[in-house]
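[recover] target loaded
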């Protein structure tokens, strides 16, 4: 079963093409797994994140586009690069509309393919880390009391403690207590850190600056 998060998965029914891509990618220090069909790949797949798929667009059985759609159906975040022949460009465009990270037209320059792989993986790793942090922040926000969330919204809106206190009909000292609780619960090191977390979570986009 596949579990290497940095592995490049090559799916192509053409044995010579598989071996050529495997050699190229390994020469560039990537870990590689090859599959002769999309169905073989799906049967062997145990982890649907942290890697990149390179697939030919035309294959017997499940095509590259069908593989892309199946991965999407499974809520996979794997970036997929499709390899296409000259006459398959319209199909490649369809694949891009279905969520493919890129398409490479045959014959291709080795460096073009490697750069496409690096770009797809780099974007994926960044997005993956960003999403993991966002989920963690949302988890912390869910633990806040209603009053704490109201104080946080006021802080995100740029309001001073006195204005927040007035709006919520509480004392400025009480706002300070809630603010201290927020810092602890959100694991924030500063007010700017707290505000960054709230904005990153997308919870207070509608907060008004006053």
């Amino acid at each position: 079963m596949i579990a290497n998060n940095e592995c490049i998965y090559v799916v192509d029914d053409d044995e010579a093409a598989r071996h050529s891509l495997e050699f190229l990618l390994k020469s560039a220090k990537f870990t590689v797994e090859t599959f002769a069909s999309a169905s073989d790949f799906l049967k062997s797949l145990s982890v649907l994140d942290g890697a990149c798929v390179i697939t030919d667009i035309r294959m017997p059985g499940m095509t590259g586009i069908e593989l892309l759609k199946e991965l999407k159906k499974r809520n996979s975040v794997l970036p997929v690069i499709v390899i296409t022949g000259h006459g398959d460009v319209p199909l490649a465009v369809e694949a891009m509309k279905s969520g493919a990270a890129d398409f490479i037209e045959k014959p291709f320059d080795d460096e073009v393919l490697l750069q496409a792989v690096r770009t797809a993986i780099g974007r994926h790793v960044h997005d993956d880390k960003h999403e993991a942090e966002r989920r963690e922040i949302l988890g912390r926000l869910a633990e806040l009391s209603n009053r704490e969330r109201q104080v946080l919204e006021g802080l995100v809106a740029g309001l001073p403690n006195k204005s927040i206190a007035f709006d919520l009909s509480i004392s400025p000292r009480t706002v300070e207590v809630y603010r201290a609780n927020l810092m602890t619960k959100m694991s924030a090191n500063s007010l700017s850190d707290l505000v960054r977390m709230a904005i990153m979570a997308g919870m207070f986009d509608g907060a008004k600056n006053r």
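[recover] notes: The longest helix spans residues 110-142.
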